[in-house]
Amino acid sequence: MQMTKPVILTGLRANNDLQIGNYFGALLPIILMAKQRAGEYQINLFMPDLHSFTTPVDHAQLQNNIMNNLRIFTAAGLPLDNPDVHMYRQSYVPAHSELTWILDCFAGFGELSRMTEFKDKSARLGVEHIGVGQFNYPVLMASDILLYQAAYVPVGDDQRQHIEFTRMLAERMNNRFGELFTLPASMQEQAEFFGSSEGRALRIMDLQDPTKKMSKSDESGKGCIFLGDEPAVAHKKVMSATTDSVAQVNHDTINQPGVSNLLRILALLRGVELEVVVHEFNGVTSYGDFKRTVADEVAAFLTDFQAKLAAVDDTAIKSKLAESEALMNQQANQTLLNVQKAVGLR
Ligand code: TYM
Fold first, then answer.
1. Closest residue (by CA) to atom 32 of ligand 1?
2. 51 in ligand 1 pocket by Cβ < 6 Å?
3. pLDDT number for residue 198
4. Model confidence pLDDT, tens digit, residues 133-163
5. Are 158 and 21 in contact (CB under 8 A)?
6. Cα of 175 to ligand 1 centre, how many Å?
7. Which own/partner contact pairs does 125-133 have at CB distance under 8 Å and 24+ positions apart?
8. N or C: fewer beta carbons within 10 Å in the chain?
9. pLDDT confidence bin for 1, thresholds 50/70/90
10. Is residue 23 part of a domain?
11. For a substitution probing ligand 1, which of 7, 17, 18, 22 has the most ligand atoms within 8 Å of its CB?
12. 3-state helix vs strand vs coil in the chain, percent to 5
């Protein structure tokens, strides 16, 4: 049971509410592909539930969070009735864990130690407080991608290193054992494929500190717009976003990171090129109206999205999961079997 069409694949963790960085960085690109190009491509949007424990999680809430994320995938417009579109939970396809172990034995301790996320966390908390899962999860992520021979993996810019690592590991295995894996496209090729005007993956920044990325693990929540935020609350977050004293609405990520981030968010919400919104605010010298325009657009987006979310049908989700998980087990097991044979286990 091999994939007959090139695969576009991504996953979004279920640790907390998703935020607009996740939405625009990974979810929307794959949903647009599912709507526009399924037929030509196989689309895999999955829930990396085994990744949940790399950071602390409320285990009693995990099932709810998983279901909620699957509802979000659906509300965002994933066409569940399309036979080329698959939605599944990682832990329901045991080959992910099995391939991870095998790949672990070919991944370097040194290269995993150099992963930015691991380095940052271990510097902050000390290695004694870092789980082995946190250290090892790039290998699980590589397995998620390689099992389905994915060609394109829409992710935000923060996942760049993991995509590069996946390519390197796949190449290493192919060089040693023959053509086992498709190499996913480089981040540069992906940016072109997904039509990024700047030729790089997206990085939405924190509203309070626009020098760091917007993140769902943000503690105060003030710099982050969650998909579940009350529209009025999100409106306030935008109105109190950090800007600067330049008094010109320019896209200049070095000198005006806050304003640039708001321009970017506005362009994404409207589905237009960045230049279009930059042009709209040309010559504007006060930030009040500019921020209000962005805040109104954010609030309208959330109102609309939340209405769609409330209308999602859980039965449709459950039957899609059953169907996709059966098929994904067949596809993943085929790749796993090839690997098992190559390394001498079969
Ligand atoms: P996760 O769950 O942290 O984030 C999900 C996706 O959202 C993107 N993202 C952003 N994009 C732009 N701006 C931001 N501020 C922003 N914040 C988050 C992330 O880059 C990601 O694409 N390890 C992955 C999940 C995963 C995965 C995979 C992805 C597991 N296996 C296989 C692709 C393929 C993660 O933790 O993403």
1. 141
2. yes
3. 72
4. 999 999 999 999 999 999 999 999 999 999 9
5. no
6. 29
7. 131/53, 131/54, 133/53, 133/54
8. C
9. low
10. yes
11. 22
12. 60, 5, 35
- Which residues are paired to 152 by β-bridges? 8
Percent of the chain whose pLDDT exceeds 70: 99
Distance 22 CA to ligand 1 centre (A): 6
Active site residues: 121, 213, 216
Ligand 1 pocket test, pick from 19, 135, 145, 155 with the greatest ligand atom count within 8 Å of Cβ, gives 155
How far, in Å, from the CA of 156 to the mean position of ligand 1? 6
In a domain, 1, yes or no: no
Q: Are residues 32 and 66 in the same domain?
A: yes
What CATH number has the domain bearing residue 79?
3.40.50.620
Q: Give pTM, 2 decimals.
A: 0.96
- 96-125 in b/e form (b: 16+ CB < 10 A) is bebbbebbeeebeeeebeebebbeebbeee
48 touches ligand 1 (CB under 6 Å): yes
CATH of the domain at 238: 1.10.240.10
pLDDT band at 200 (very low <50, low <70, confident <90, very high): confident
User: Within this chain, do residues 180 and 271 fall inside the same structural domain, yes or no?
Assistant: no
Pair (188, 271) in one structural domain: no
